[in-house]
Prior knowledge:
By secondary structure, the protein is of the alpha+beta class. It contains 16 helices and 22 strands. The longest helix is centred in the last third of the chain and has 18 residues, at 465-482. Residues 1-20 form the signal peptide.
Amino acid sequence: MHHCFMAAALAFCIAAPAAAQRNLVIAAQTPPSALDPHFHNTTNNNMVLRQIFEALFELDNQARPQPRLAESLRLIDPLTWEVKLRRGVRFHDGTPFEAEDIAYTFARVPTVPNSPALFTPAVRTISAVEIKDPQTVILRTREPNPLMPIDLAAPAILSRKVHGPSPSTSDFNTGRLAIGTGPYRYAAWLPNERLEVTRNPEYWGPAEPWDRVTFRYIPQGGSRMAALLTGEADLIDYVPMQDMPRLERDPRFALFSVDSVTFVYLAPDAMRETTPFATDRQGRPLPRNPLADRRVREALSLAIPREAIAERLYHGQARAADQFAAPIAAHRLPDLPPLPHEPARARALLAEAGYPGGFRLTIHGPNGFFPGDDGLLQALAQSFTRIGIETSVETLPPATLFTRATNREFSLFMTYFSSYLTINPMRQVAMTRNPELGHGPFNRQRYSNPAMDAPLAEALTTMDPERREILTQQAAQALLEDKGVLPIIFLRNTWAARRDKVTYEPSPVNHTTALYARPVQ
């Protein structure tokens, strides 16, 4: 019970016996790689840092932009947008959020050193940020950008006063600059082990219910399960598939699942004349790169038993992929069957491409990055070996994998992408790399396909949604036919929680965050 008296426009509250602190412990699989919100555009960083920092908009679980530091966005003409800013917002140290912070933030985004993946695509089209008045910012663009409402939900806004002329990632990591406008404040961080945040009592929006939230980073599924079963954790993500039946039967726990926008794919080295991890049967380097031949890439795709993988390896927690876009993605190619599994045709294509006896291949992928990743790599290697490509597997920690992939050290590697749009994974992963335009920041194999690029470039500047859909589907069709990437499966996301303590709103983009966790009343 609280008894409050209004006096001189101030509320004086006499708290009845102090309510018990509401603490939440989340055991999560993947830690953030940094607390700098612009350092690495990846799910595990964004989901945690969006509790501390905020963008102008936030995409909700239906991919609709919701106002955060901006109240509205209006298209004035194809090259001009008006952003109305929220009044009265302060950073955690009390510094007011101001219009000047927008230009400051957008200027920093492309310049963060050593970033594995910048947020540059989100600001790539903005040529000028003009302050009309303290609450109104005009964004001018080099070209029409139909994705602007979604782009503005990407970069977290920093303060030019708080964060200064050249904030370093290490200053965020020590906590010194881990200061945002978000509903939670930074409290403590032990890299790869734990992160603690506390409720921001001055938050401009609805108050969060948790006083303190502790994220414990536990990469092993069995250990996260143990933390839940012993009561050390209230909520866990990436529930091990084999443990789901047991949790479903146990009345102490609740499961929260949703079809994700995450799809797993293989990236082949299709552009180089030679490739490091393909050899002849004796282990000698091949004079030419077999993956540069579309028939070989198609043979690899035909070798993969996607439906069996989804059913047996994933116990139904995945679906066979039909294309390079999530099942709920806007503008995906309609009515496609899952990609075919035809080993005999795969062997015929290999022979046609000049490899009747196959060759040797090493594939690379992450271990502990998404559920079943290690087992999936092994299943893929077995499938390739069955068609005559003798395949071995090397798994790596995600950070090492992406550094080496960015350096073009692999012939074929596995990873995933998450998006509510069909255009976005193509723009980020498969479009010819162009840092100035923000194209292809995740195109680690430097794939390039003019038949895909041309409609895609036009789609990225087409404000008419119907025309944009046609162009996007043309690009998607070109990518599918060329096998520039090999989609494998779509994942489901599942969390488990103590039923008496937490309910969770499952996130299609797989965000594990206190913002989706609510106490059981």
